[in-house]
Design brief:
Number of strands of chain B: 17
Distance between the termini of chain A: 108 Å
Shape of chain A: elongated
Radius of gyration of chain B: 23 Å
Helix content of chain A: 25-40%
Strand content of chain A: 15-25%
Largest interface: A-B, 63 and 57 residues
Oligomer: heterodimer
CATH superfamily of the largest domain in chain A: Succinyl-CoA synthetase domains
Largest sheet of chain A: 5 strands, parallel
Strand order of the largest sheet of chain A: 14-13-15-16-17
Strand order of the largest sheet of chain B: 7-6-3-8
CATH architecture of the largest domain in chain A: 3-Layer(aba) Sandwich
Number of domains of chain B: 3
Structural class of chain B: alpha+beta
CATH architecture of the largest domain in chain B: Alpha-Beta Complex
Strand content of chain B: 15-25%
Structural class of chain A: alpha/beta
CATH topology of the largest domain in chain B: Enterococcus faecalis V583 fold
Shape of chain B: globular
CATH class of the largest domain in chain B: Alpha Beta
Radius of gyration of chain A: 32 Å
Helix content of chain B: 25-40%
């Protein structure tokens, strides 16, 4: 039997159609087939094959003919096959290719499930909304996104079962992949929800260095936990970790959230039988059965102990407990003796939460600390470039970064400030953070060492320089090489911010000025 | 469903260093070379309002492009403008682009109009022509107000012969004059005796021969002809060599059958054969008859007209019929004929951008590697041009296919919303006219429309439909 279909006024080139004819001939029950335009040649073929009738005879070269000989054939199925073959998808060639838009990128990466957005804040919200529309989770690195936009995006995301991490979210680790500024951590059973980027980096790095591991690190952006956003993603993050099979211990890291957010977070933690450690920077205890970390380091150590099934006491754990051969007091005495000028501590930070932690620890131990954004507004620096008495500066703050990259990437500002502080006759001790991991400078230790070397060469005074390396042994920068570069120029290197600050306090106390 | 149980696949938008770090980690990641929307924050507000429109714009656009693609432009015959072009008047001169007054017209358009009046016998020389124009007796109107198009200056006068194209699917007719060839020609503003003589010959010999040949031959399906030409290296805007050849194949036997002398027949065939752009005046009205089918579709943001008069660039969109959105015609980047430089160039001019509007022209650049050099680019750039145009169009053409892109359909249905949102302007291929009337073509190149017209149109659209 002959089956036929004529599609008038559709032009296709003959080679394509010949290839399609071959494909159709391979179909079940098909004895003979011709897919082609109604040209004299094709009509000639059909006549030879005894497949030509009056209707086909009348067709023109502008008509597409689908003619099939065989038994029990559904011509509409054949037509579908022909159409499919006519729409051959373009395969992209190999090699690096960038996409002009989110939509075209998603066409290529069909199973894309997250967008990492770092464009100007003004436009970031619009792009994030598009990503959510396309079913992607969002990590919004951009800052300066309007508050209403953030609330709108987060509400919309929750409706769609998606996450919006940020705006102003610098750190996340999802399924083992470090997004933006994050460290190469071991895989494990500790899940973190963090409204603080460097806080999360410090906690996750220490956990990893203690041979425990991270299941997920969900960033939310600092504003999430404040009253207006009400912890939409912070709470969602906790819920996700409660549901997640890989996560056995939940760690919360944030600057003090709004009390309603704390209340809801505590409720969630009390409902689950998963263990937790909560650290809201100020060390405040909210409820008796909520386990609190008093420093970032303490939080990480507690989480690590719990994750290994060990008992945790209500005390402040210190990394120094793990380094028994390091005589903390003796070393502090030695350093104090060497210091030949000054009586104040100066902290030059690239991580905001690390700077905050240093301020709190110093204030508790040795009194007021000046800063561009102090804990007590009385101690606000009039000029951010001029330190006073004890001073801690977060050089990642907007006032310092206008028109230049973040100090984790570009060390120019911090290096010149370091030299300036060294020459200040009031400075006795300088404390720094060295943040490793993806996103950061590939040789931060080398950069700082260079400035230290310059300062020490040009000055005849000795000042104590202390650094915390915030990073893991698996970070791309090579932890131990970074440490060595710093130690070679006489920087005292500590494995956590809290231990570095505590050492600074000890040296200062020994100094007795 | 949970993100945690799937492999992470990341789209990075913004800092490229994040993309590179992710690649080093071995993550599945693609990078978006992001651009802000056209015009920045003004557009952002319009786009935000746009998202609140309740009418189904996507559906409207799907209908618009379906009508454009279902269209069947066919050359059905020829006639004299005053007799066949709707609304044509005895004292009227049609021109390319959006409406414009005499004093704002550019050199080439003025030159062509003067030539048109001399051709009509309404003036003996430039001075008489200008006097006539300044008396206010002559009415100027865009071709697009009369369902037609004209390349470059696009001037048409009542006595000029025109092709009659019918969109067989929807019964829509469109019109265009015959192409005069290269060099000193009316459409580039030349109006000397040889220009007028050629126009007279076209009226007295070329037109009757072609008209009779067409009557003998019957209708010619232009859509299929364009489809074939695109597969033969034409984009049917700046390159029409294959299409012109195919047209000769269609018409030559019928020309031989006409009742004219062999000398006249030969001259006609030689004239067509010597002008690679003869088919441009068929590809343009073919595109016009197709885009006309989309005009007036409620809620559609698809562009139905892009046109320039050498001073202004105007667009019209399906969902806001009869409204022009106008901005300054842009400079053309390109290659110049010996003896000419950028200083000589007139801003962008002509209705030939109807080809891009209809889904070919620069949008089909990847199909026409031969002209890439002429417009100052590499083959790779030509391919990228076409690939980029997919970003701002609604669909892939079901008939015009690009061999090099594995027979992918050409980008079809320019969408103003996508243009604004993605910050990508449509690419345009074009000839360059000398800014002084009477000199003619000085080069060819590429250009873009002014961006404000897309933002203005989208703003008006939001105002209309919100």
């Amino acid at each position: 039997m002959i089956y036929k279909l004529i599609k008038p006024n559709s032009y296709y080139d003959s080679v394509t159609l010949m290839l399609i004819t071959d494909e159709i001939k391979k179909k079940e029950n098909v004895e003979e087939a011709l897919v082609g335009m109604g040209t004299e040649t094709n009509k000639g073929f059909l006549k030879e094959l005894d497949m030509l009738d009056e209707e086909l005879e009348k067709t023109t070269p502008n008509d597409l003919l689908i003619v099939v000989k065989g038994e029990n054939i559904d011509i509409s199925e054949i037509e579908k096959d022909v159409e499919k073959l006519l729409k051959i998808e373009t395969e992209e060639e190999e090699g690096e290719k960038f996409y002009p838009t989110l939509e075209s990128a998603v066409k290529k990466l069909k199973n894309a499930n997250i967008a990492l957005i770092s464009i100007a804040g003004e436009y970031a919200g619009y792009e994030a909304k598009k990503a959510l529309d396309l079913g992607l989770n969002v990590m919004l690195f951009s800052d300066n996104v309007p508050l209403e936009t953030e609330i709108e995006l987060k509400k919309y995301a929750l409706k769609k079962g998606l996450l919006v991490m940020g705006p102003d979210c610098g750190t996340a680790i999802i399924n083992g992949t470090a997004l933006a500024f994050a460290n190469v951590v071991k895989k494990g059973n500790i899940g973190i929800v963090a409204a603080s980027g460097t806080g999360a980096q410090e906690v996750s790095s220490i956990i990893s260095n203690l041979d425990s591991g991270i299941s997920q690190l969900i960033g939310t952006g600092g504003r999430d936990v404040k009253k207006d956003v009400g912890g939409l993603m912070f709470l969602e993050g906790i819920k996700r970790l409660i549901e997640d099979n890989q996560t056995e211990v939940i760690v919360l890291v944030s600057k003090p959230p709004h009390e309603d957010v704390v209340k809801k977070a505590v409720e969630l933690l009390k409902k689950t039988n998963k263990k937790h450690v909560v650290h809201f920077i100020n060390g405040k205890v909210y409820e008796e059965d909520i386990l609190v970390g008093y420093t970032l380091e303490d939080t990480a150590i507690k989480a690590s102990l719990i994750s290994k099934g060990e008992k945790v006491e209500d005390k402040i754990y210190s990394y120094l407990d793990y380094f028994k051969n390091f005589d903390f007091d003796l070393k502090a005495k030695e350093e104090a003796k060497k210091i030949s000028e000054g009586k104040y501590i100066r902290g030059l930070y690239s991580g905001g939460t690390l700077a905050d932690e240093a301020m709190i620890l110093l204030q508790n131990d040795i009194g007021p600390v000046y800063s561009p954004s102090p804990i007590n507004p009385e101690y606000k620096l009039e000029d951010i470039n001029e330190s006073r008495q004890h001073t801690i500066v977060d050089m990642g703050e907007d006032e310092f970064t206008v028109g230049r990259p973040h100090p984790m990437i570009d060390f120019t500002m911090r290096k010149s400030r370091l030299i300036k502080e060294y020459f200040d006759k009031d400075t006795a001790i300088i404390i720094l953070d060295i943040v490793l991991g993806w996103g950061s400078h590939m040789d931060p230790g080398g950069e700082i060492a260079e400035a230290v070397k310059t300062a020490r060469e040009k000055s005849n005074k000795y000042k104590c320089i202390i650094a915390n390396i915030c990073g893991t042994y698996d970070d791309p920068q090579d932890y131990f090489e970074q440490k060595k570069k710093l130690e070679d120029v006489g920087v005292l290197v500590f494995p956590s911010n809290a231990s570095a600050v505590r050492f600074a306090v000890n040296v200062w106390k020994e100094l007795g000025r | 469903m949970s993100l945690f149980n799937k492999e992470l696949e990341i789209v990075n938008i913004g800092l490229k260093s994040f993309y590179e770090d992710l690649k080093k980690q071995g993550a599945k990641v693609v990078h978006v070379d992001w651009k802000p929307p056209l015009g920045g924050s003004r557009s952002l507000k319009i786009l935000n309002d746009f998202s609140k429109i309740s009418i189904d714009v996507e559906k409207a656009n799907a209908e618009a492009v379906e009508r454009i693609m279902n269209s069947q432009p066919t050359l059905v015959g020829m006639g004299i403008a005053r007799e066949v072009v709707p609304g044509m008047k005895e004292n009227m001169i049609l021109h390319a682009g959006p409406p414009i007054t005499w004093n704002r017209m550019c050199g080439p358009l003025k030159g062509a109009i003067i030539g048109g009046l001399i051709y009509e016998g309404k003036a003996r020389n430039e001075q008489e022509a200008i006097e006539l124009i300044e008396s206010g007796e002559i009415e100027f109107d865009p071709w697009h107000h009369h369902d037609g198009v004209g390349p470059m200056a696009g001037v048409a006068t009542p006595s000029m012969p025109v092709f009659i194209i019918e969109n067989k699917t929807y019964g829509i007719k469109s019109y265009c004059t015959m192409n005069e060839g290269l060099g000193k020609v009316l459409r580039y503003g030349a109006n000397g005796p040889e220009v007028i003589d050629r126009l007279k010959w076209m009226e007295e010999v070329l037109y009757p021969v072609l008209k009779e040949a067409l009557e003998l031959k019957g209708e010619i399906n232009l859509k299929n002809l364009i489809a074939q030409a695109v597969q033969m290296g034409d984009e049917c805007h700046n390159r029409n060599r294959a299409a012109t050849s195919l047209f000769i194949r269609e018409i030559a036997p019928a020309i031989l059958d006409t009742n004219f002398s062999n000398k006249e027949k030969k001259k006609v065939l030689e004239f067509i054969n010597s002008n690679d752009h003869f088919f441009l005046n068929l590809s343009m009205p073919a595109a016009k008859s197709a885009t006309l089918a989309a005009e007036g579709i409620k809620g559609s943001t698809v562009v139905t007209v892009m046109a320039r008069n050498g001073t202004d660039f105007g667009i019209r969109i399906a969902g806001l019929p009869n409204k022009w959105f106008v901005g300054p015609a842009q400079e053309v980047e390109g290659l110049y004929f010996p003896g000419f430089t950028k200083e000589d160039a007139n801003p962008d001019i002509g209705d030939s951008t109807i080809t891009e509007t209809g889904g070919f022209g620069a949008f089909a650049m990847a199909a026409a590697p031969a002209i890439v050099k002429f417009v100052g680019g590499t083959v790779q750039e030509a391919i990228e041009t076409t690939l980029k145009m997919y970003e701002i169009t609604e669909t892939e053409n079901n008939t015009y296919k690009i061999p090099f892109l594995n027979f992918r359909g050409t980008p079809t249905g320019l969408n103003i919303k996508k243009v604004v949102e993605k910050g990508i302007l449509p690419r345009i291929n074009t000839g360059i006219a000398h800014k002084k009337p009477g000199i003619g073509q000085v080069g060819a190149g590429l250009t873009y429309p002014p961006m404000n017209i897309f933002i203005d149109a989208l703003e008006a659209f939001v105002k209309e439909y919100l």
